[in-house]
Every structure is written in structure tokens, then in C-alpha cells.
Write a structure and sequence with these properties.
Strands 6, 7, 8, 14, 15, 16, 17, 18, 19 and 20 form a 10-stranded mixed β-sheet that branches. Strands 1, 2, 10, 11, 12, 13, 21 and 22 form an 8-stranded mixed β-sheet that branches. With 499 residues, the protein is α+β, with helices and mostly antiparallel strands. The chain is built from 15 helices and 22 strands. The chain has a domain of 150 residues. Helix 1 runs parallel beside helix 6 and helix 1 crosses helix 13. The longest helix is centred in the N-terminal third of the chain and has 22 residues. Helix content is 32%, strand content 26%. Bound molecules: flavin-adenine dinucleotide. Flavin-adenine dinucleotide binds next to helix 1 and strand 11. It catalyses: (S)-malate + a quinone = a quinol + oxaloacetate. This is Probable malate:quinone oxidoreductase. GO terms for molecular function: (S)-2-hydroxyglutarate dehydrogenase activity; L-malate dehydrogenase (quinone) activity. Its EC number is 1.1.5.4.
Length: 499
């Protein structure tokens, strides 16, 4: 059964943090536009954006070692770290705007201050960390970062990690107190509540099955209403595909030339979660280590204090793995179904090239619980198996595409793919992910609405005062914005004073 066509200005597919962010920005810029959301699950933020499905790190490159690489001459390239940090500052500003204007409330329910630390062992790694610290700490964005290779200091910073450590290998850490833990699930739910109270039509249990261009240039989505079993058709002038891992198959259905020669490679994840409150209380930081050889950058092990349901928790992981599903709630046929005549060579080339990754993922899938505990004991030497349970995290679908580096190159970033006329955009990839949602959605606006950007600029600057500027090059502005957003979001500790 089908019903009549319903026309609207904007359709957002998926109720994750990306659609939530785009919808919220658009509602501020053009409140008169009608927006509809279709989500196949029963509520918002249930897939990757859910608090149990991601690591909740406010990625600002304060602790993730994969954002700083060593050049052949031994110097450290910090350009990527600066870029990620700048992107996170945009999110902080937008969230702060929403709180200040009472569009969302109780920021402590979605963002909490937590020190971000990097921890390494071995002479070479310690030398790398020291150089990285020297390069970063003179940059305004990384002000306040400390380095220590002194065991007494480390015992003060990370008692749980240092207790019972017998190795005589050199060990060192950096610590910066401006880090955050972000509950992206709570944030997503708050944003959808805000959208709902601003007349956005949010349709849960509505699964998008097909996408077609109509003769008058609109996008028509065929939606299965899972509540009633009815097939509905809705059209919009602009379509955003924010289906998380499910975005690639939906993008392929649009048939736009930009959707061709792209594949997806799903990487699944597991965390260990501590069930002993006494252990949880002994740790207060997000501590990132170094990735193992062959491991993809997003499976760097880390031991994280998290705030979930207003309760302090402790999670370790993620352990990567392989599952052919594109969403946690997806189907085992997702991967094979995404192979099309136009991307089969790209996908095969990636398969040949990424043997080390495949080997790593197979090893990870085969890990027994005791082996996982052994990896945890590299962080917490005295960890007891009975204190830790396993939780299954979200799926990340990494983009495979042909690049200058060759056919079938695996990408670890996020990619906005849009039609040349800007009428449809999709978000693919998952790193650095939710933390940079505001930056990525501004990119969607720039690509899809270039004709409106001039007119929208004053409002964007009201929401995001640093828009168009680099904070690393404007230290006084950074200090002002940092301190203001810290106050609004309840992150105030020590104020930053630039000298
Ligand atoms: C293990 C792991 C750790 C991570 N850690 C971090 C971290 O520490 N920090 C960080 O910033 N990011 C992290 N991320 C990335 C972050 O979670 C994602 O980038 C972000 O949540 C993606 O949001 P989204 O809205 O694109 O997708 P999702 O939150 O997955 O939402 C997509 C929605 O679309 C719906 N959907 C899909 N297909 C259809 C369809 N056909 N019809 C209707 N609805 C559909 C889905 O049901 C889902 O609700 C992590 C991810 C994983 C998996």
C-alpha cells in the first residue's frame, strides 16, 4: 500500500548526532524551512552516537598519538592535531550557543571535563612523546600540557595504571586538563527534543528503502513505516543522508556520479567495562596508548573515565573486529550488498592492499576474554577478570576509494559526498567522528548551499564566533572563546591565560 507524495524543504535520514547537528544549525539559519527526519529505530541516538557504542572522547588531538607523526628528520608534524583541535573548538562554540539560548539544557548531562593523557613505554616511544610534547605545548591550543617520565609523578596522575607495574622499561605520559568526555547519545537526544519542539517532524520506526530523483529535480524517498506496514513517499528539495554506517547503501541508491567507485569496510568494536566501583574510583582520565603494528588508527587502546547516566564508569578498548554489518542493528548481507559493478575493482584492490589490517582484525576477532584481559593488564597490571564485562560497541564503516595513493585506498577520516548541484549530501566514515560534527555539517552547508553562505554568515558567526578564523593564529580570541565556552558548558577549572 502507498500513500500520496508529501513535499518538504529538507529530509534528514537517520537520527544520529550528524542529522541532529545539521537540523539544529538549519533551524537557526532558516527557521521557516520545513524539515522531516526518518529514523528506522524507535528513538534517537541508538546507533554509533549512543553512549555505549562509542568512546565518548571529545577528540581535540590532546591525547591521540595518531594525529601527530614523526617526519623522516625526526621532527614532529603537528598539523593534523591542530586541525582536529580547531574542529573541536567549533563544536564547543555551537553547543555553548545552544545552552546559552536555552535550546538545550543541563550541559553536564552531555559534557564533562576530564584530563586527556598519552602514555607510552620504551625508550623510543618516550623520546617521541617528549618531542611531541615540546612541539604541541608551545601552541596556544595545547596550552597547559604537561610531560613527565618521573615514576612518582605518574603514580600521582594515574595510580591505577602504575600500581603493580614491575617493568624497568622507561615510561612517560603527557597530561592536559582541558580534555572532555562527551555523551554523544545524550547530546543527540537533547538535540532531537529541541528540533521536535521547533516543529521538525521526526518519524521513528521509518526505514528508508529507496531514493529517486523526480522529474522536477526533487529527491523522493520511499519509506517503510514500520509501525503500520505502509509504504510512504516523501519528497524534498534537499536530502541529507545521515545514516551512519547505513549511509553508503543509501548514497548508492541516489545514482549520482559522486556515489560511484566508493566502497565501505566495516570494523566492529568491543569495550571492557569495569563493574567494580572501587576500581572505577581509582582512575580519573582518558589515557591513550600507542596503536599496535597493523592496527587501524581508531583501535588505539585507551582507558577511559566516562560519565554515563550521570554515573562515573571505566571503559577499556576498543578491541576491533570484523562483522559484515554496516550498522550494529544491520544485516550480515550489508557488505556484499554494497559491492556494485562500479566499485568492485576498488573493493578488490583494497582487499589486496590491506592484508595487514585484515590479519589484525582476524586476530582481534579470535581473542579470548583472557587475551583481552592481558591487553588490559598492559594498562592496569593488577586488573582482575571478574571486575570486567564486555560490551559490544558500534560499527564503523571506513570509506574505500580511488585516490592519488592508488586504487582502493582505505580512508580513516569522515567524507562528505555531495551532488554537484548541492541537492543531496551524505556523510561517510567515522573518524574523528561525532566530536567534529559541527565542522562537518558546516562543510555540508558550504558544499550544498554556496548561494546562501554570505547571507547566513552573520548568524553563523553569532553561533560560532571563530567561524572563518584559525584560533591557533588568534591566541587572545582562543583564550576568550575557551574561557566563555568552559563557563557555559560547566567545564571551568583553571582559566586559560595566554602569554
Ligand atoms: C567504537 C567506536 C568508538 C567511537 N569513539 C568516538 C569518540 O570517542 N569520539 C567521537 O567523537 N566519535 C567516536 N566515534 C564515532 C561516532 O560515534 C560517529 O562518528 C557518530 O556517532 C556518527 O553519527 P551519525 O549520526 O553519522 O551516525 P549514527 O549515530 O550511527 O546514526 C545513524 C542513524 O541512521 C539510521 N539509519 C541508517 N539507515 C537508515 C535507513 N535506511 N532508514 C532510516 N534510518 C536509517 C540508524 O538507525 C541510526 O540511528 C566512535 C565510533 C565507534 C563505532
Amino acid at each position: 500500500m502507498s500513500n500520496v507524495d508529501n513535499k518538504t524543504d529538507v529530509i534528514l535520514i537517520g537520527a544520529g548526532v550528524m542529522s541532529a547537528t545539521l537540523g539544529s544549525i538549519l533551524k537557526e539559519l532558516v527557521p521557516e524551512w520545513d524539515i522531516k527526519v526518518f529514523e528506522k529505530l524507535g528513538s534517537a541516538g541508538e546507533e554509533s552516537s549512543n553512549e555505549w557504542n562509542n568512546a565518548g572522547t571529545g577528540h581535540a588531538a590532546l591525547c591521540e598519538l595518531n594525529y601527530t607523526s614523526e617526519r623522516p628528520d625526526g621532527s614532529i608534524d603537528i598539523s593534523k592535531a591542530i586541525k582536529i583541535n580547531e574542529q573541536f573548538q567549533l563544536s564547543r562554540q555551537f553547543w555553548s550557543y545552544l545552552v546559552k539560548h536555552n535550546l538545550i539544557r543541563n550541559p553536564q548531562d552531555f559534557i564533562m571535563p576530564i584530563p586527556h593523557m598519552s602514555l607510552v613505554q620504551g625508550e623510543k616511544n618516550v623520546a617521541f612523546l617528549k618531542k611531541r610534547f615540546e612541539a604541541l605545548s608551545i601552541n596556544p591550543l595545547f596550552q597547559g600540557m604537561e610531560f613527565s617520565d618521573d615514576v612518582d609523578k605518574l603514580e600521582e596522575w594515574i595510580p591505577l595504571i602504575m600500581d603493580g607495574r614491575t617493568s624497568s622499561e622507561p615510561i612517560a605520559a603527557t597530561k592536559i586538563n582541558s580534555g572532555t568526555d562527551v555523551n554523544f547519545g545524550a547530546l543527540t537526544r537533547m538535540l532531537f527534543e529541541h528540533l521536535k519542539s521547533n516543529d521538525v517532524e521526526i518519524n521513528y520506526k521509518h526505514s528508508v528503502k529507496n531514493i529517486k530523483r523526480t522529474n522536477d529535480g526533487l529527491w523522493q524517498v520511499k519509506v517503510h513505516n514500520l509501525n503500520t506496514g505502509v509504504i510512504e513517499y516523501h519528497t524534498a528539495k534537499f536530502l541529507f543522508i545521515g545514516g551512519g554506517g547505513g549511509s553508503l547503501p543509501l548514497l548508492q541508491k541516489t545514482g549520482i556520479p559522486e556515489s560511484k567507485h566508493i566502497g565501505g569496510f566495516p570494523v566492529s568494536g568491543l569495550f571492557l567495562v569495569c563493574n567494580n566501583p572501587e576500581v572505577v574510583e581509582q582512575h580519573h582520565a582518558k589515557v591513550y596508548g600507542k596503536a599496535k603494528v597493523g592496527a587501524p588508527p581508531m583501535s588505539v587502546p585507551h582507558l577511559d573515565t566516562r560519565y554515563i547516566d550521570n554515573k562515573k564508569s571505566l571503559l577499556f578498548g576498543p578491541f576491533a573486529g570484523f562483522s559484515p554489518k554496516f550498522l550494529k542493528t544491520g544485516s550480515n548481507l550489508d557488505l556484499i550488498g554494497s559491492v556494485k559493478p562500479n566499485n568492485v575493482i576498488t573493493m578488490l584492490a583494497a582487499g589486496v592492499k590491506e592484508m595487514a589490517l585484515t590479519k589484525y582484525l582476524i586476530q582481534q576477532v579470535m581473542l579470548s576474554n583472557e587475551k583481552r584481559m592481558e591487553e588490559l593488564r598492559e594498562f592496569i597490571p593488577n586488573a582482575k577478570s571478574e571486575d570486567w564485562d564486555i560490551v559490544v560497541a558500534g560499527q564503523r564503516v571506513q570509506v574505500i576509494k580511488d585516490t592519488d595513493a592508488g586504487r582502493g585506498t582505505l580512508q580513516f577520516g569522515t567524507e562528505v559526498v555531495s551532488a554537484s548541484d548541492g541537492s543531496v549530501a551524505a556523510l561517510l566514515g567515522a573518524s574523528p567522528g561525532a566530536s567534529t560534527a559541527v565542522h562537518v555539517m558546516l562543510e555540508v552547508l558550504q558544499k550544498c548551499f554556496p548561494q546562501h553562505m554570505k547571507e547566513w554568515e552573520p548568524k553563523i558567526k553569532e553561533m560560532i564566533p571563530s567561524y572563518g578564523l584559525l584560533l591557533a593564529e588568534n591566541p587572545e580570541l582562543f583564550q576568550q572563546i575557551y574561557n566563555e565556552t568552559a563557563q557555559t558548558l560547566g567545564l571551568s577549572g583553571k582559566e586559560l591565560v595566554y602569554h
